[in-house]
Input
Amino acid sequence: MASRRYLLFFFVVLEILGLGFLYNFYRLRNEWESFFRLTLEEEKQRVHSALKATLAAGGDPVETLSEYLEGSRLLKGAALILSGRTIIVPGSDIPPQSLIYTLELDPFVFQLYFSGKSFYEIKRHLYAELALWLLLNLTGLGVTLWLLRSYYRSRLALTQERAEAERLKSISLAIASVLHEVKNALNNFNFAVFRLKKKTSSEEVRLLEEEIRRLTLYLEEVSDLRKPLILNRVEVSIADLLREVLGEFSERIKDLGVEVEIDVQPARLFVDPERMRVVLRNVVRNALEALAEVSPPRRLRVSGEVKDKFYEIEVADSAGLLPKATELFKPYKSQKPGGFGLGLFNVKRIVEAHGGEVQAEVRSGWTVFILRLPLGKPSEE
Output
């Protein structure tokens, strides 16, 4: 608040000084013009008196004007107009910027040419000073407005951060409550599977137990997103992992009539396979959900290749839909009704934990998610 008052005070002082300068400029210009014209009027009266005395004595007015020109600093030229003829007085050196006065003494008409050099030079100087003042004043005004804009932007950002913090706190409390209930349900499922294993050892029971284990691990991670990820890296074939994840969605792909194009270059990466499955599932699931919202033909393109020191995976769908890029990977910013906005946040979190990066863009009508994972074995920390 104090900073804003200081800026406003500076702005007011600047404008007061500016108005004072303009008032002084106006007065100085008027005083200079009045002084100069008064000086010329006095010079004109002296010429008038000299000519009048010459004519009264029966002398030659041209000769009088010629002699007057030699000693005058203002009168630079003269002409005599008689019976339609113009006679330039000898000694005249009419400058390009002249102030012309007409003097009538019957039967003669005289044109007097006074130098306006000093008059125009001082006027140019005054207007140059005005232009400099305007430049400085506008610069000061621009700086003041920039400072005010920066101040209000920082205040707005602070207000938005506080509002976002409150929103995230409310959502975190809601999610914590949901997770607590889900964990209780999973414990019951786990107990039921344990009892079921005593009666049968079928493949379905083993798969159910494995999925409960994965879901429990995921819930533990989501319960506190501030905790760093602990990766269990092993060497895996990234091409096989991509095909495995795509296979999990085979029925959904068939139901939607999606044309799938796979072009994956073989490579072995040191990654956490469980977490990388989460990444690929989220990206593929998002692509299929986007394709479900558009009319056929629906196309999905999955590619992978080595680029420099990274393995680059692209998952592209022909829907061409992409929410606000600035909020795409933020937690609790879901574009789906009822969603928590944790899917793509986890994608980014896991990929960056591997030392990679993720981005999304719309390219030639395709929505493209790009995952870059480093090649080679990670260094020991």
